[in-house]
Design a protein that fits this description.
α1 crosses α2 (about 100-110). The chain has a single domain, classed as Deoxyribonuclease I, Chain A. The longest helix is centred in the last third of the chain and has 25 residues, at about 190-215. The protein starts with a strand and ends with a strand. It has helices spanning about 70-90, 100-110, 190-215, 235-240, 245-250, 250-255, and strands spanning about 5, 10-15, 35-50, 95-100, 120-125, 135-140, 145, 150, 165-170, 175-185, 220-225, 240-245, 270, 285, 290-295. The chain is globular and about 60 Å long. It contains 6 helices and 15 strands. With about 300 residues, it is of the alpha/beta class.
């Protein structure tokens, strides 16, 4: 049992032949062991993917209208560039953030470069003040395994005007996998000053994880997102309990749900994205304001 926190990772599970239908038995080699197939999942912040039409109920889209030079031609050009990038990923599942609505996702998966892959969409409108949402795109062999849930985040004094945590139950080759899509509050106003907001988001994500593990200690859970914090920041390392070393996760002291004296089962998670931050010359995000790599 391994729980992942990552921006981009591969997942190995027992699988049927990729061309087999659901009612066909998985092929096995002569030695009787299960056949494995590699599946690729990814997360991408689509950076303000707004359409070019005004939504009177969303003042956050006012910057992305023709009078602000965001017209149909520019919108379609962005969709074209995004489609090319998605093709290059060769991914089976893509979690995204900063999308205005479901319509922009429908336009993306209808692009000529993507339409043949028959992508499906999971999307929920968030309470974010700018109207940007979380979503998940998937294709076969992934299948939706129930209703998605958008968990709100209390930023203090009942303020929930942020993206929330999107919980999506999926099925992959007979295995239930829960995806948690995140876009935690930004560092606007300063990293330290805004840290409590990201800790609040981490607390919500962790509570969803612990709820699943209380029902099934072997539950498969994958956390993806733009966390706006690095792997070593307290929101990720202490609140979410995501650590660098895989052995710290697989060790019996972490995986035993009924260890003597333990009243709850809240094990550490493995954060494979930490490897991207092994040096000052690599990462997942280069922010001009600090002229440095981050691993958000």
């Amino acid at each position: 049992m391994i729980h992942f926190l990552s921006l981009f990772l591969t997942l190995m599970l027992p699988s049927a032949d990729p061309k087999a239908t659901d009612d066909q038995a998985p092929a096995s080699p002569d030695n009787g062991t299960a056949v494995s197939r590699e599946y690729t999942i990814a997360f991408w912040n689509l950076e303000n993917l707004f359409d070019f039409e005004d939504d009177p109920e969303n003042p956050g889209d006012d910057e992305y209208l023709p009078e602000k030079e965001w017209d149909q031609a520019r919108y379609e050009r962005k969709i074209d560039h995004l489609a090319k990038a998605v093709v290059s990923m060769e991914t089976d599942l893509l979690a995204v953030c900063e999308v205005e609505n479901r319509r922009v996702l429908e336009d993306l998966i209808a692009h000529p470069m993507l339409v043949a892959d028959q992508w499906s969409i999971v999307h929920r409108d968030s309470l974010d003040r700018r109207g940007i949402d979380l979503a998940l795109l998937y294709r076969q062999p992934f299948k939706l395994n129930g209703e998605s849930i958008l968990h709100s985040i209390d930023l203090g004094d009942g303020n929930t005007s942020t993206r929330g945590v999107l919980e999506v139950p999926m099925m992959l080759s007979g295995t239930e996998v829960t995806f948690l899509v995140n876009h935690w509050p930004s560092r606007f106003g300063g990293a330290e000053e805004s840290s409590p907001k990201r800790k609040a988001a981490a607390t919500v994500a962790r509570s969803v994880i612990d709820r699943h593990l209380s029902r099934n200690a072997a539950a498969e859970i994958i956390v993806l997102g733009d966390l706006n914090d690095d792997p070593w920041d307290s929101s990720v390392r202490e609140v979410l309990k995501a650590v660098r070393e895989l052995r710290a996760v697989t060790h019996p002291s972490n995986t035993a749900p009924r260890k003597e004296g333990r009243t709850t089962y809240s094990p550490r998670l493995w954060n494979p994205s930490w490897k991207f931050a092994n040096s000052t010359d690599s990462g997942t995000y280069y922010y001009w304001n600090g002229w440095c790599w981050n691993c958000f």
